[in-house]
Design goal:
The protein is an all-alpha fold. The protein has 8 helices and no strands. The chain is globular.
């Protein structure tokens, strides 16, 4: 988990500062499952987060091989990203 948190901390501060603790948990969870390199590939999701368009960020997280592989868990994380709780 510490490695996943460190990977997330490498993101620009303006992205992280726009997130509440639950949305940060989503990204830590994704980093834990994907690893830093693959998480970095979610460019459209991070762009949406930067704009605080959490609905779009949620949608972008589901447009991935990762989402298909983890199934229901990806759906749960997407909903947390969308609503912030």
């Amino acid at each position: 988990i510490e490695i996943a948190e460190n990977a997330l901390n490498k993101r620009p501060e303006k992205i992280l500062s726009s997130l509440n603790p639950r949305r940060i948990e989503v990204l830590v969870n994704m980093a834990f499952n994907l690893g830093e390199d693959k998480l970095r590939k979610f460019k459209k999701m991070f762009a949406a987060i930067e704009r605080q368009d959490f609905d779009r960020a949620s949608q972008e997280s589901l447009k991935s091989k990762y989402a298909k592989q983890v199934g229901v868990r990806a759906d749960e994380l997407a909903e947390i990203m969308r609503w912030g709780y």
